[in-house]
Amino acid sequence: MRVRPILILGVDIIGENPKKFAVVSWLNGKLERKGEFTLYRLIRFIQSKRPDIVAIDSVTELGDDLRKFLRSLPPGTKLVQVTGRPGEQRSLQSLAKEHGIRTSDRFDPYEEAKLSALLASRGVGYEVLAFEDEVIVKVTRGRSHGKGGWSQDRYRKRVHNLVRDKVREIEERLRRADIPFDLETEEKDYGLARGEFRVYASREELAGLIRPMHGGDVEVRIYPVERAELGFAPLKGEEAIRERRSIIVGIDPGITVGIAAIDLSGRIIALHSERNMPVGEVFRFISEIGHPVVVATDVSPAPGFVEKIARSFKAQLFVPRESLRVEEKNELLRNLGVTADDDHQRDALAAAYKAYLRLKPKLEHIDARLREAGLSKKAEEVKALVIQGYNLGEAMQRVSLRERKTEKKEEESREGVDLTPYIRRIRELEKKIEMLENENRELREIIKEQRKTIGRLERKIADYDEEVRRKVLRERELEAKVKRIESLEKQLREAKAVIERLSRDLVKVKRMNVVEVRGSAVPLKVLRVLSWRELERIEREVGLRRGDVLFVINPAGAGKAIAEELVERGIRAIITEKPLPGPVREVLREAHVPFFTSNELDVKRVDEFAVVERETLERAIGELLARWEEEDREREAERFLKLVEEYRIERVKELRRKAEEESKAH
Is this prediction's pTM over 0.90? Predict the structure, then answer.
């Protein structure tokens, strides 16, 4: 298999105003001096070469441009501070000496850049973290709906349906990729007005999975979550067990995250819950407590969020055979003698304690063996190594060798110290290790037998579990049927309500048709207000035909547009309780659509049903139309006389002008 070459750029500042940097590259063991670069040229160079690591002895050399520099790094490129995290930094020369790297001129920027690259190639240093492993994805409408009537309503509904479809598409893609996320939505018009995902992954992990969208009906925007303060994560974690105490961590993910930590003796160290806690903040919270060797969850299968935390710490993932029941969690907390502030803390603590109980026999066996070997002080370190996969003999040997190296360094730093007792002790320990390794082989044989017994018992448990599972399935099926019956009863009630409403409407229509057939009176279609929505309602309930007479209770606020709509629909006349607004009167008068008040025609109304005597209505319409025709004729005559008068005046002016011109000519 072909191995991809690893490129590391070592960088050191040469001078300020403008900033210039010395750059040395390390490519699979080969060093090459690249020259001087300004900050702008350095960024362009990094973007073109796309190195795995940019190594620097201190990020303070970038000054105020640090955040800008971090944002410009291409995906997959790490910025590493090789001298350590802030407050714990060491000189490049001491680190180089510790790792067997020869140094020369400490004041040469190229020498400093070379040392940074070499140390980073050996896993020395801390990666500078500017962004959380979280991304906010917002799905919203792309443009404003504007104001207006039915067409705008239809467009708004269409856009909300498109937003809903896009949210579902993104949700499905994230689930297929097994990426954990939380989703908040705002429902509207049987669709979604917006959807916001909090995705627990870096933007690089989402590349090709979710693409930004701009300018259309739907917009998708991606915002990486930037850390409030820069984080520093070690390039290699082999020293973590020695530097920090080993812990078992339980995590309950969700909008509110629960975290619990216990040590390898089963004592509670931390219990915490927080709403909207980013994955980076969870990582920092756990790191401040200790080094997790086991990350546990209370559900099976494990959530992606918990798997990500376990991978980040290179810890063992504990998943119960089946999700813990609430009664079991409460029993675990009673055994611990503690009370959690909320369900999230309870679930996290139950997961951690369940993992501890699974490991407890092994940990007690380790304690017994270490007491015999005289290594009780290093019990936690040995336990952590065993949990990580070493057998007991290997773990004890590694710890002993590490102790031996430490003792050797201490002996070299002292003069005149008698080494005989220490050498004797080392030999004793080596004999014990040999004895333990023999015992380990014997124990492995015992374990094989125990595993066979466990397998036999697990098969019995599986048979019992199958019976319980069938019982649970029957109960779930019964519960589903009860819910289905409740849902159908609800639908039946809603259908009855619709039938009752439609029956009332049908009675109204029949009454109006009876009156209309008899011919003695004219039925009026009643509108509470003169609006688009009310027109839509009357159209839906009883219909609106050419020649209908409308009765409007309150026409205030109506405009020219709705009046023109009524004219276009062929309404014969309008009767109102209150006078019509001026613009509506003008449109109706121009179109010769009669309008009256209820006092003028003596309208009879009961609730939503109104009639007027046909003879009275016909007479009023005829008189009003006749009066309007007379007014139109008078207005036309006045306009004609005005035109004649204007023509006469213009003609007189023209004759006078000609007379003046002739007199001047003579």
Answer: no
